[in-house]
Design goal:
Number of helices: 6
Order of helices and strands: EHHEHEHEHHE
Number of strands: 5
Helix content: 25-40%
Structural class: alpha/beta
Radius of gyration: 14 Å
Distance between the termini: 10 Å
Strand content: 15-25%
Shape: globular
Largest sheet: 5 strands, mixed
Number of domains: 1
Length: 130
């Protein structure tokens, strides 16, 4: 499962500008949209993700774009909520993975996506085909 979460400032910006973020877009393009929406340079955008070997390619792309990385050992639900909290310095949450049991709690979504939406942010998930 691929995961992407961001806050209300990004949502408002995209509504005004007609931009959109989606899981399949190039990471550098995604970071540029997030940077513009939060009035930062790409180098100042903070991306949070779990510190897992499966994220190696994403980490390389984020670093190549120049954004800041916050790698965490666990707690991806809290990390997905972080971009939608007003005092958070996290601008974007990205990741791959998630147990099928946890993801099946909510039809077409996962717990972190539902929680993030409840906090006025947005989370997108995409299940990988088996």
């Amino acid at each position: 499962m691929s995961k992407l979460a961001y806050g209300a400032r990004v949502i408002d910006y995209m509504k005004k500008r007609g931009d959109s973020l989606h899981i399949d877009m190039p990471i550098a393009e995604m970071l540029a949209i997030v940077a513009r929406s939060v009035d930062k340079r790409v180098q100042d955008v903070a991306v949070m993700m779990l510190d897992r070997p499966r994220h190696k390619e994403i980490v390389e792309q984020i670093r190549a774009a120049g954004a800041s990385l916050r790698m965490i050992g666990d707690g991806d639900i809290a990390a997905a909520i972080a971009p939608s909290l007003p005092d958070s310095d996290v601008d974007l949450y990205m990741g791959i993975g998630g147990s099928p049991k946890r993801c099946s709690r909510l039809p077409g979504s996962n717990l972190s996506a539902a929680t993030c939406k409840a906090k006025c942010g947005h989370a997108t998930t995409r299940s990988e085909k088996s």
